[in-house]
Amino acid sequence: MPEGDVKSELRRRHRAERDLFTANLSVGEKALSFSHLPSPLARLCRPGTVVAGYVAKGSEADPARLLAAAEALGCTIALPHVTSKVAPMRFLRWQTDTPLEEGPFGLFQPSADADEVNPDIVLAPLVAFDTRLMRLGQGAGHYDRALSMLENAAAVGIAWSVQETDILPTDAWDVPLDAVLTERSWISR
Fold first, then answer.
1. Residue 3: predicted pLDDT
2. Rg of the chain, C-alpha, whole Å
3. 116-156: pLDDT as tens digits
């Protein structure tokens, strides 16, 4: 099977596992998941630090409360702004009480005229991650391209524990994460 087909099949399988996992979480488990900044991440969240997150879709792990906690610590919050599959993703300043616009792929994002910022910390969504902290994303390469340009930013995957796998196929342009936060643990290199 060609590598592109392997990754597509892995995405399909991991999304289905994630959907099933989140459907079976109790109300209490959902309430506790990603409800506070773990200490390794909180230590990085000083006033003025730019923390980029995302608006979760479907069964993705939701970083909304992590972003609110970072904002309460004086961090500047940013969200990705996407215009197409091939155009570079930008990170735009956002306050957690500011309305969002619907963008391509059903993403919710800040208005295109919001200030562009360079994140110090990027909370990244993912479909799967492996023991090397390699990330399998949606397939458009937006995060890999963005992270390759943000050399000094800490890249933290936000995921459910069920999304961990042994080894993912990688390409030369895939950028490893610095850490992954799941509902159960903080995993770092």
1. 53
2. 16
3. 999 999 999 999 999 999 999 988 789 999 999 998 999 99
**Contact residues for 97 (Cβ-Cβ < 8 A; gap 6+):** none
For residues 79 and 122, the answer to whether their CB atoms sit within 8 Å is no
Type of residue at 70: A
Note the pLDDT tens digit of each residue in 167-180: 999 988 899 999 99
Distance of CA 145 to the CA centre of its chain: 14
Q: Compute CA distances 181 → 55, 75, 132, 148, 172, whole Å.
A: 16, 19, 14, 21, 24
Whether the pLDDT of residue 66 is over 70: the answer is yes
- CATH class, domain 3-188, is alpha beta
pTM for the whole structure: 0.94
Report whether pLDDT(96) > 60.
yes
- Dihedrals phi, psi of 178, to nearest 5 degrees: -85, -30
Three-state secondary structure of the chain: CCHHHHHHHHHHHHHHHHHHHHHCCCHHHHHHCCCCCCHHHHCCCCCCCEEECCCCCCCCCCCHHHHHHHHHCCCEEEEEECCCCCCCCEEEECCCCCCCEECHHHCEECCCCCCECCCCEEEECCCEEECCCCEECCCCCHHHHHHHHCCCCEEEEECCHHHEECCCCCCCCCCCCCEEECCCCEEEC
Structural domain spans, the chain: 3-188
